[in-house]
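Supplementary Methods, section 5.1.

A reviewer requested that the exact input to the structure prediction be made available. We therefore reproduce it here, unchanged from the version used in the analyses.
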Amino acid sequence: MIQDFLLPDLGEGLPEAELVQWLVAEGDDVTLNQTIAEVETAKAVVELPSPYAGTVTTLHAAAGDVIEVGSVLISYDIGGDDAPAAPTKDASAEASADASTDEPEEKAQPNLVGYGAAPRAGGRPKRRARSGGAAAAPAADTAVLEAAPHDIVTDLDHGDTVVERPRSTPPVRKLAKDLGVDIALVTPTGETGLITRGDVEDYARRVGAAPAADDAVEDAAPSHPPVAPGERTTRTKIRGVRKHTADAMVRSAFTAPHVTTFLTVDVTATMELVASLRSDRALAEHRIGVLAIAAKAACAALAHHPELNSKWDEDAGEIVSHHYVNLGIAAATDRGLVVPNIRDAQDLTLVEMSDAIRQLAETARAGKTAPADMMGGTFSITNVGVFGVDAGTPILNPGEAGILAVGAVRRQPWEHRGEIALRDVMTLALSFDHRLVDGQQGSLFLKAVGDILQEPGRAMLLR
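The structure derived from this sequence is encoded token-by-token as follows.
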């Protein structure tokens, strides 16, 4: 029995998605909830789990294609006339939705389950090799095999022999290429044999390759495709994360009246604290940095200046004050800027905050940030200092009252205890919605953050 899987609305109300890559090929036996493809919506790259167990008969799109919601994406042979296995009951709204269609009733597809596909029982699936030796037709077109770099593929030159291609995400493969690492030599440690960014970096260190960049949140500079000789211009379709970011920034800039205020502070004490924490072997794996301390300072200041943690609800004619902090952390990725948030950041210790920021950054770089993780933010931080920039005028995330830009730390002459001394100095920039926040309130909030960074011990006095 052939069953078609239609591209669902992934809970975002978006009309289309771009196919990033197939993780299966025609002829593969797949299990229920096995990840079959990566698609990029206007918000994030999403893994699609299979709603059926069976054999892939047809892939209806190629990598790079833009597919409308409700279009046939993949077809399966599920065997016999039995109904497909029902999905698990823990489907989340962000990860699944019914795809409306005019297809006959027997073609109705089950809801997708959560983003995380279930581990494959007994290892990775093997592609069925056609019998008859080298003269037989291949199980799948070579282009399809190249579009499925994560799985075991049939070696078309060696009959029924199967060879294993390492599983990894596109950003990890790019990192391996940048570091001169043969990814086939890297030992995977991720779930179901996935090669992670850390695996590549560890291998690079062992073999003496160039060191990877530090784990700063915004250090992933956009990659640019090579330019053909003689080509004077390049046109790139506006879509995906870049399109969503642009729409959100225009909407924010022309809706909320932005005001930006600046403060330059002596953060020598904070830098000494960072050095002390990083030299502590018990904390070495947490890699606590300035951004984590700035995030803690912002959460502490928001408790005393709640205007910065509010929302202007135009439709309801209300100001919504949040009594929690979902802290957005701006992350630059190859696909554009994303701002996932840390839920209930006000409850985290400094160590937990550092770990959350690092995990957020790794997920964003891998293109795996779930759409739900970019919704519901109440206040944001952007780390422009990682690029060597002193300050900027950040644009508010739609629906938020404030965003704090953390600048570079500079060693420069500064007045200290009545004398001129070399000190570590940082500039903070706060943009806020003037409908919600008056100049005095914004200035007092920024001063509170600066006071904590100037004297981290002050945080011990706050409740």
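The chain has three domains: 2-148, 171-207, 241-461. These observations are discussed further in the main text.
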